[in-house]
Amino acid sequence: MEPTTATSPLLLFPCPGCNSQLYFSPKSQQLVCEHCGTKVAIDKSTDLIKENNLRQQLNAGGDASVTVEQLVYKCTRCGSQSAFTSETPTFTCSFCNYEAVNPVAYKTRIIQPSGMVPFKVDKQQSLDIFKTWIGKGWWAPGDLKEIARHDALHGIYLPFWTYDAQTNSTWSGYGGRYYYETEHYTDSNGNRQTRQVQRTEWIYRSGTHDHFFDDILIGGATELSQNEYESVFPYQLEELVNFDAQYLSGWKADVYDIAVNDGYDKAEAIMKDSIYEACASMCRIDTYKGLEVSTSYSNQTYKHILLPLWLCTYAYKGKSYHFLVNGQTGKIHGKKPVSTTKVVLTILAVILVVIAFIAMTQG
Ligand SMILES: [Zn+2]
Ligand SMILES: [Zn+2]
Hints:
Strand content: 35-45%
Bound molecules: zinc ion
Radius of gyration: 29 Å
Helix content: 10-25%
Structural class: alpha+beta
Order of helices and strands: EEEEEHEEEEHEHEEHEEHEEEH
Number of helices: 6
C-alpha cells in the first residue's frame, strides 16, 4: 500500500509554557515538561470502566482481519517525516524525538480499552529494582550491571483482558480414608513378626460448588506468554482509571492481537483448574480418586484495559535474557545468567575447605 501522510488524528502534548513535549510522569501522576518544569493535571475519572457482556460480544463477531496501513507522519514541530503503521499507538519523530500518540491505533480493533493503570514506577526506579535483584544472587556476573547503561529497557502499556464469570459445578468421586492393619510375616531369620500396613477405604462422595470469579487477568498481546505476564502479577485493578491518551505521552503502547474469545478460553482453563482443586479438597478425606467435575459458566463479562510493564531484553555472553518489572508495583521477574567463573571458584573454595577440614581432623 502507498504510504499516506497522516495529519489530524495524531495527538501531541506540547508544553503550554515552552512548547517542548509533555511526558506522563509516574512520580507526579501528571504531564510534566522536563524543560521548564510545567505540570498539567490529568482528570482521573473511572466512570467509563464497566463490565461488558461477553455473549453479546461473541454474537456480534470478532475482529475482522485488519489491514495494517503504512503511514508517514510529518512532524508539526520540526517538519521531518517518520514512518509508522496505523496500529502503532505511540511513536517517535526520528528527527526531534517528539513522541506522538496515535489514538487511531486502538480503533483498528473492535474493542477499545476502557480503562488503564498509569505507570507508577519510573525508569530510574525500575533500574534500581533490577540492580538490587541482580546483585542479590551471589554468582550474578558483575558486568551485568552494565545493563543500566544500555537503552534496552522500555516502559510499555500492554493490552489485557479481564473476565468475570459465575460458575456452578457438581462433582462426584471417591474419598479415601487410610487405616492400618496388623500383618504377620516371617522375617529372613524365620521368626514370626508383625507390622502395620496402610490400607484405604474408598467412600463415594458428591456435592456442588458455586463460585464467582472476579477479574481473571489475561495478557492480550502475544509478545509475552501468559506465564510471563503472571510472573509479575498481581496488578491492583482498583486503581484503574479511564483510558486517556495523555498517559501514553512519552511511553510505548501496544494493541491486542489475542481476540476476546481466545482470551476467554484461557480464562476458562484457569477457572476450570481452580474449580477442580476446590472440588478435590471437598472430595478428599486422606486422598481421593475418580473425581468428575461438571461446570456451567454464566454471566460472563469482560473488560479491555492497558497495564504498565517495564521490559528488558539483553544479551549476555551470546545468550538472550529478559526481565520484567510490574510498572505499578515494581515486582520483578527474570532469569539470572550464571557466571561460570564464579561457579567454578565457588566449587574450588568448597573443595579447599573440605581438604582443610580433613587435614585438621586427621592431623
Ligand atoms: Zn515547558
Ligand atoms: Zn520532529
